[in-house]
Design goal:
The chain is of the alpha/beta class and about 550 residues long. The protein has 14 helices and 18 strands. It has a seven-stranded mixed beta sheet with strand order 6-11-3-12-13-4-14, with helices on both faces. A three-stranded antiparallel beta sheet has the order 16-17-18, with no helix packed on it. A hairpin with an 8-residue loop joins strand 17 and strand 18. Helix 3 packs parallel to helix 5, helix 4 crosses helix 5 and helix 7 packs parallel to helix 8. The longest helix has 29 residues.
């Protein structure tokens, strides 16, 4: 048995190193900020898992005797080769970890071809063993293949560590950090209220589908005007929200931490509102909207200065990370059985606090509304930015706002659900006599994301505004050519301040006036270009006609996020 263990240990260790160590850690680093735990939490249990798994696998393989041992070791070496090539070179253009369901049926042809390649990889070491003329090379292959895969993956992980922006690592669930709490969402002012409800990924195409399904669904947004010809600056939450709240454009030429540091430091939008006597409450998740709570100090009134009781389940954490690793390394036809959404990782963490950290994906809006939570304060004006999951996958809400099992809903019902919850919020404002004098904006941060391919279709985003003084009548429709660049001026004007330093508000733009708008679209590497790039477009005329979108230039993406 000792001789068999000497033969088997390189393959067994390399296999476990690939799947249970470098696979987990590289996935963590490449998606840093998506997990509710830190590298410090993960690395110890992962190293322990790797050592234990290596010992168990080596023992099991070494128990097999004779020719069966050589055959088994050959197959394991083939699995190592297949996993390494699959995980590093055969991604199948599945895009980023966003929670979006994948249409596996449309990729069946690719999956069959991928399975054929896997068969070749798995059988290659076995063929070398079975052919008498090549059997003399087999022993060398059993240590050379593990050495090469471990060496190349170690070099790759070192390169990944070097380029990782560790400032993006989530600290929201660590009790030693302050955090944005959910306190004050239902606190209104007896003076002025400016409320911004942002529904993530609120594409106009989704709104059209809602209205096709139920034509009068939005008619009861009394006093609102709907601007369907509205464009965001970006196709993703980052850096769209940063631009919305600071006016600072990001070109992915610096890390997310650097961008947020500078944007929140240099932006004058929130400081001007605070100077004018407004609270500024920001309800949004980290990673996409900020990377360090210190960036929001002096800008957000809902920063909690007390720790939360955090409990991390290492076993659940490792189980989820192993599933994620399996999703990376499995043959394409098997990946669907290991798919999971970013929200799934939160199952490993339990948070208990008087006021919980705000989490866009997990905020239970209906549960809060059902509890009659509204209060009114008389001291200051009120500005609130509330970032809700909206139309973003994975879908877990019905049209009444009830929470479903993750992934069992659909985009139309979920979009309706969040609108219905906002309507309930507005009805409570009417009951309190605070609706008419309030300025209320409902908008998306971006439209549907399709950034695995170069932009070849228009992107318009939902935008609804109810100015102070408007409180009756059905929803109005405007054809104005407006964009995210008009958001800050609109809010500043509503606050009674001079909007000129911020550009033009939506109220200042003519109904038939042609505006020039910009759009920055980060697209993954594909058949047209080897690197991730940022495509810049200029829009002249109606945004719903892609003929009015003119490509300007490509910007290199130096820091992907």
């Amino acid at each position: 048995m000792r001789e068999r263990m000497k033969k088997a240990w390189p393959v067994c260790v390399a296999f476990c190193f690939t799947v249970f160590f470098v696979g987990i850690l590289e996935l963590y680093l490449n998606n840093i900020g998506q997990f509710p735990y830190t590298l410090k939490d993960l690395i110890g249990p992962t190293a322990g898992l790797f050592l234990i798994a290596s010992a168990i696998l080596l023992l099991l393989v070494s128990l097999v005797r004779g020719k069966a041992f050589d055959v088994l070791l050959s197959i394991l070496a083939g699995l190592l080769l297949g996993a390494y090539i699959q995980g590093n070179f055969l991604h199948g253009d599945l895009g980023e970890l966003t929670g979006d369901a994948i249409d596996w049926m449309s990729r069946t042809e690719y999956g069959v071809g991928n399975a054929f390649l896997w068969a070749l990889f798995v059988l290659l070491p076995l063929v070398v063993y079975l052919i008498p003329k090549t059997r003399k090379w087999w022993k060398n292959l059993m240590w050379l293949l593990p050495l090469l895969t471990v060496g190349m993956q170690s070099a790759g992980m070192a390169a990944t560590i070097a380029k990782t922006d560790f400032s993006a690592e989530s600290g929201i669930y660590s009790s030693q950090f302050h955090y944005l709490s959910d306190e004050g969402i239902f606190e209104l002012s007896s003076k002025k209220n400016i409320l911004v409800f942002l529904l993530d990924r609120l594409d106009v195409k989704y709104i059209d589908q809602v209205l096709e399904d139920e034509p009068g669904f939005l008619d009861d947004l009394e006093g609102f005007t709907y601007y369907p010809d509205y464009t965001a600056m970006y196709a993703r939450t980052y850096p769209s929200v940063g631009y919305l709240l600071t006016g600072q454009v990001g070109y992915f030429d610096k890390s997310a931490g650097q961008y947020f540091d500078e944007a929140y430091r240099e932006g004058t939008f929130l400081p001007d509102l605070r100077e004018a006597g407004y609270t500024t409450k920001l309800y949004m998740s980290d990673y996409y909207c900020y990377t360090d709570i210190r960036q929001l100090e002096g800008l957000a009134d809902n920063i909690a200065d007390r720790g939360a009781d955090i409990r991390l389940d290492p076993g659940e954490m490792l189980a989820l990370m192993c599933q994620f690793s399996a999703f990376r390394y499995m043959p394409f036809l098997l990946k669907q059985f290991f798919w999971l959404s970013p929200e799934s990782f939160k199952r490993a963490v339990t948070v208990e606090s008087e006021r919980l950290p705000f989490d866009t994906d997990a905020f239970r809006f209906k549960e809060e509304l059902d509890g009659d939570p509204f209060t009114v304060q008389d001291e200051k004006n009120n500005f609130m930015y509330l970032h809700l999951k909206g139309s973003h996958a994975a879908y877990d809400m019905d049209e009444e706002g009830n929470i479903l099992e993750l992934g069992t809903g659909n985009v139309i019902d979920q979009t309706k659900g969040y609108f219905n919850l906002i309507k309930r919020y507005l009805e409570e404002m009417k009951r309190l006599g605070l609706y008419e004098d309030a300025t209320i904006i409902i908008l998306g941060d971006h439209g549907v994301s399709e950034d695995t391919e170069d932009l070849d279709r228009y992107k318009t985003t939902g935008f609804f505004v109810k100015p102070a003084g408007a409180s009756e009548g059905e929803l109005m429709l405007s054809g104005k050519q407006v964009s995210q660049a008009n958001f800050q001026a609109t809010v500043i004007e509503a606050a009674g301040l001079d909007p000129e330093p911020y550009g033009r508000s939506v109220f200042d733009i003519g109904e038939d006036e042609e505006m020039v708008r910009r759009f920055l679209y980060k697209v993954d590497a594909n058949e047209n270009h080897e690197e991730v790039i940022l495509q810049e477009f200029e829009i002249r005329g109606k945004a719903s006609d892609f003929a009015n979108w003119t490509f300007i230039r490509n910007h290199p993406v130096l820091f992907n996020h």
